[in-house]
Amino acid sequence: MKNLKHIVLLFFSLVVLVSCGSSKPATTENKTQTITVKETVHDTIFKIEKDSSSLKALLECENGKVVIKNIVQSEPGRNLKSPKVQIVDNALRVDCEARAQELLAHYKDTEKATFQTITKTITIEVNKLTFWQQIQIWGFRIYTGLLLLLAIWVYVKSKI
Question: Which residues form the signal peptide (predicted)?
Fold first, then answer.
């Protein structure tokens, strides 16, 4: 009789150990989108064509000094004015002035591309237990607790 009680107690103990499994945590899924900021600077080279102006003059010597007798030809350039020629103390001085140039172009262009990073956590819901299934689980836990108390009580009684 004692062997039968021990076998039944061992059987129910094994059933309790096997049936108690931990619940699985909720599964999560991560989606990532990358942010990239790209800045591009374009440099532009402005090419200004060459320009020249010319002056042709006849020189003459008067009283031991050089003087301009006659200006034969004077041509201004696109951006340069006609040269101004002066002779001061037998030194030739030529001044050639240019008009101000206006460059109406953008030489730098900034381009930005933005991609945002968003991390989404989606919880995938595992099948929930019904009310009846939860009652069965709790009932079995109570039954197992009572059975364990009974086994302890039987063990203590057999020792006395």
Answer: 1-28
